[in-house]
Structure of DUF1850 domain-containing protein:
Amino acid sequence: MVLVLCCTGWWLTRPMLSIYGNETQKVVTMNVTPETKLEISFIHSVQKTLVEEFLVPDEKLKGFVLNSTKYHSFGVGLPFMESDGAFRQEGNAFIMDDMNRHFNELNLRTGVGTKLTVTVDDQKFELYEMFEPGQKIDIVIIPRYKTFLR
């Protein structure tokens, strides 16, 4: 009996990556490991060019680390300063590596024409097709039991 309780407790506290729209509408909940790769892509609302952000879970599996951003034009809200990371150009793309920005959770919004898409490992979620413009999207790493309560 003790073994069953211990195993159940362990299972319920395992970290899960969850994506929610409209505060409580679950898009997906999946296992998360230090090797999980997360990509957020969208069309920049001002520049009208593709932006791709590359993240991984933090070392405690409680939040996210933005490692790199790839974009195709300079403009408002896009990294460009030396303090933002290591800048390089690859063909017609600008890439900012080594950004090391930490986030407890990711709060996004769908927008008109922004084509907000999230890819977790090889699973792609075209959130702009699932939710009306202006809807809040939350991406969190939480214990499994909290996925049942939200």
Q: What stands out?
A: Residues 2-147 form one domain. The first helix runs from residue 2 to 13.
